[in-house]
Design brief:
Blueprint (H helix, E strand, L loop, with lengths): L2 H8 L3 H7 L25 H9 L13 H14 L3 E5 L2 H12 L5 E5 L4 H11 L5 E5 L4 H6 L5 E7 L11 H11 L2 E5 L4 H4 L9 E5 L13 E5 L1 H14 L5 H12 L1 H20 L4 E5 L9 H7 L6 E6 L2 H11 L4 E2 L9 E3 L11 H7 L5 E5 L5 H15 L1
Parallel strand pairs: 2-3, 2-4, 4-5, 5-6, 10-11
Antiparallel strand pairs: 1-7, 6-7, 8-9, 9-12, 11-12
Helix pairs in contact: 2-4, 4-11, 5-6, 5-10, 12-16, 14-16
Bound molecules: pyridoxal-5'-phosphate (PLP).
Length: 399
């Protein structure tokens, strides 16, 4: 790709950048992005090797440091998130852990949403705690709670919006203002929306992290993650990754790079299917509550409308009759996959109370709204009428 073609793509709209951004073809002039499955690289001479190792000369040394396929994925995702730079990681958790290792030290304090991915909780409580980093958890919806939790040593603020599985939304403009005032970094896990629906950096976040495993792959094939933000911050992440090693596999990077090309289209359909299913669920006599941001009945519908360009592919609902009823609805399905994964073409159904939140204590589940009758659905790309038929079997048996 020559310079003028590259500039044109860099200034194009996101849907164009998703298809064409971040990649320079090789001397072979391939049209589709090449996959560089190589752990190391060769040099023309000893002097060449020395100059590359010392950094005097640009070039690849080893794929824990750089790999052209991984770099193409990083460049494309950075464009889509509107960030200066991106560092790819071996998983979403590796992205989160790398941010912690790059920016926190003993004695620091972290303010986190209480509604975060379970393994993120474990990293904060079991590991950061051991190294003298303390965490205060807050209700992600409550702006004043974020403000009240700030301490003089608060270095980082962490959240997911919308949250899983209840779709709670954090006001990014308001919380990023609090972070700026406190001189803390605001880190947003943008896994549920992806840049197709939400660009937190434009709303004041300092760092966006991803589990590419979910919607970016979109077909449930590979694990990966990413950190996006300003160059000064990403350099710190890269430095940690190079030494500690949770780098992304080139094969997985190739999957994610191609996944980004269909991301906009897929997210539109995930949203449309989720909206249709949520509206239908709201009509079912056995359903007492539906949590989906696209429903006007959701208390944060207006905020989501302002902050996101779509309402996402994940919804949850509560059935009459508690855990027994929820399990019977799940067990009556014949098409939906019973698994906790999400962001796949295949619709998944799960019982948060006994799976994703199974190890969370009762009081926390209670305040977080994880009730025994709650069912979560990550809506895929099948015909939504078949999803309704599949759920109707179990729901009709309840009422
Ligand atoms: C899955 C997930 C993660 C962790 O990602 P992995 O790729 O599984 O390590 C982090 N945050 C959210 C919101 C997730 O859904």
């Amino acid at each position: 790709m020559n310079k003028s073609r590259e500039d044109a793509v860099n200034q194009a709209r996101p849907a164009t950048q998703a298809v064409r951004g971040g990649y320079r073809h090789t001397a072979e002039m391939e049209h589709s992005e090449a996959l560089f499955m190589t752990s190391s690289y060769v040099f023309d001479s000893a002097a060449d090797a020395a100059a590359t190792f010392s950094g005097d000369q640009e070039g690849n040394v080893y794929s824990r440091y750089t790999n052209p396929t991984v770099q193409a994925f990083e460049a494309r995702l950075a464009l889509l998130e509107g960030g200066e730079a991106c560092a790819a990681t071996s998983s979403g958790m590796a992205a989160i852990f790398s941010v912690c290792m790059a920016f926190l030290k003993s004695g620091d304090h972290l303010v986190s949403s209480r509604s975060i991915f379970g393994s993120t909780n474990v990293v904060f409580n079991r590991y950061l705690e051991r190294f003298g980093v303390t965490t205060t958890y807050v209700d992600p919806k409550d702006v004043s709670a974020w403000e009240a939790a700030i301490q003089p040593n608060t270095r980082l603020m962490f959240l997911e919006t919308p949250s899983n599985p209840l779709s709670e939304v954090t006001d990014l403009d308001a919380v990023s203002a609090i972070a700026r005032e406190a001189n803390a970094l605001l880190v947003v896990d943008n896994c549920f929306c992806t840049p197709a629906l939400q660009r937190p950096l434009e709303q004041g976040a300092d760092i966006v992290i991803h589990s590419a495993t979910k919607f970016i792959d979109g077909q449930g094939r590979a694990l990966g993650g990413a950190v996006v933000g300003r160059e000064e911050h990403i350099n710190e992440i890269v430095s940690f990754l190079r030494s500690a090693g949770p780098s992304m596999s080139p094969f997985n990077a190739w999957i994610f790079l191609k996944g980004l090309e269909t991301l906009n289209l897929r997210m539109k359909q995930h949203c449309a299917n989720a909206q249709a299913l949520a509206e239908w669920l709201e009509q079912q006599p056995a359903v007492t509550k539906v949590h989906y941001l696209g429903l006007p009945s959701h208390p944060q519908h207006d905020l989501a409308k302002r902050q996101q360009s779509g309402f996402g592919g994940v919804l949850s609902f509560v059935v009459k009759g508690g855990q027994e009823a929820a399990w019977s609805v799940i067990d009556a399905t014949r098409i939906l996959s019973i698994t906790a994964n999400l962001g796949d073409t295949k619709t998944t159904i799960t019982h948060p109370y006994t799976t994703t939140h199974g190890r969370v204590d009762e009081a926390t589940k209670e305040t977080a709204g994880i009730v025994p009758g709650l069912i979560r659905i990550a809506v895929g790309l099948e015909d939504v009428e078949d999803m309704k038929d599949d759920l109707a079997r179990g729901l009709n048996a309840l009422s």
